[in-house]
Specification:
This protein is an alpha/beta fold. The protein contains 10 helices and 8 strands. The protein binds nicotinamide-adenine-dinucleotide.
């Protein structure tokens, strides 16, 4: 018996990388699938239908029903059509995985407006588009049948780039931090109808080999015991679990998974305070007290060097 028997999922960007692994892992757990991908280059240019057709065939070979969708997540009306496609093909929709992504890295002083807009459009707007339509459907179903309490699943994809910060990715990081915030808020709004969680990968896909070639060597690293840490297949079980009934009480969370490790993130929260005893601060008082008191002992955030240390002890 599969963990997702009888469920219907829609996964965006399922033609390659992490989305492909998520599709295969869900198919193995008995899920029926609408698999979306434009089949573009890593910067979002171009389209190719056979990219997603191949994964649809692979999933069918695993014994499940799967259909392709070739549209862009940036198009509000076409994401509505994706939800409608799931309902017309399989009679319902239970799970949405917002995974499609592109990269257009530039330092901020060199970034073209189109590089900023293009990345925000796929990641942040794309996540909004599909969530907007799926959540209306989950709510309508939930109201019509109260027994379906909390049945929908929305799984969004963020990145350390947004949660910790990464130079050259102000467009991508802003979108990914926005997706984490969007997750927290929509989880509150959809409490009765669906869970909404966010996942944070780090895996050997073309995003880390072709789009950011300086990461390619790191992505091949194995532990001393020979474990292939960044194999993208290791990430999919977290998504399958969050999509399942077993995760029905987990919502509004952000999880990172790399290899054999899973972390839970906590968002921005105040860690220290100074008080001016009923008087507004002046710039001069702040100049005296911010560094010496407010920022004293406040740790700098984790960065990728900390993660490497944790994974490889070097
Ligand atoms: N690989 C990592 O280490 C890593 C780290 C953090 C976050 N992520 C995120 O994981 C997700 C998957 O990335 P990946 O590494 O598998 O990259 P990938 O390039 O291998 O796959 C992304 C897929 O999304 C598709 N896509 C792009 N724009 C689309 C659009 N407008 N509509 C529909 N499909 C579209 C592409 O054609 C591609 O097949 C992305 O959201 C990415 O930002 C990846």
């Amino acid at each position: 018996m599969g963990m997702l028997d009888g469920k219907v999922a829609l996964i965006t960007g399922a033609g390659r990388g992490l989305g492909k692994e998520e599709a295969i892992a869900m198919a193995k757990e008995g899920c029926q699938l609408v698999l979306n991908d434009i089949g573009g280059a890593f910067d979002g240019t171009g389209t190719e239908t056979k990219v997603i057709d191949k994964i649809v065939e692979e999933c069918k070979q695993l014994g499940t029903n799967a259909v392709a969708n070739y549209e862009s997540v940036t198009d509000f009306n076409k994401t509505k059509a994706m939800v409608d496609q799931a309902i017309s093909e399989f009679g319902k929709l239970d799970i949405v995985v917002n995974n499609a992504g592109i990269l257009r890295d530039r330092m901020i002083f060199n970034m073209a407006e189109s590089d900023f807009d293009g990345v925000i459009a796929v990641h942040l707007k794309g996540t909004f588009n599909l969530t907007r339509h799926a959540s209306a459907y989950f709510r309508e179903q939930g109201k019509a049948n109260p027994k379906l309490k909390n049945f929908g699943r929305i799984i969004n994809t963020s990145s350390d780039s947004g949660l910790i910060g990464n130079m050259g990715q102000s467009n991508y990081g802003a979108a990914k931090a926005g997706i984490a915030a969007f997750t927290v808020i929509t989880a509150q709004e959809l409490k009765k109808y669906a869970t909404v969680n966010c996942v944070v990968p780090s895996a050997r896909t073309r995003m880390r080999t072709d789009a950011t070639p300086k990461m390619a060597g790191f992505m091949k690293m194995k532990t001393k015991a020979g474990f292939d840490v960044f194999n993208p297949a290791h990430f999919a079980p977290l998504v399958v679990f969050l999509a399942s009934d077993a995760a029905r009480r987990i919502t509004g969370e952000v999880f990172r998974c790399i290899g054999d490790k899973v972390w839970v993130y906590q968002g921005w929260h105040p860690v220290n305070r100074i008080d001016n005893n009923g008087e507004p601060f002046t710039p001069q008082v702040l100049a005296e007290r911010v560094k010496s008191e407010l920022l004293k002992g406040v740790q700098t955030k984790a960065d990728s060097a900390n993660i490497a240390q944790e994974l490889f002890g070097s």
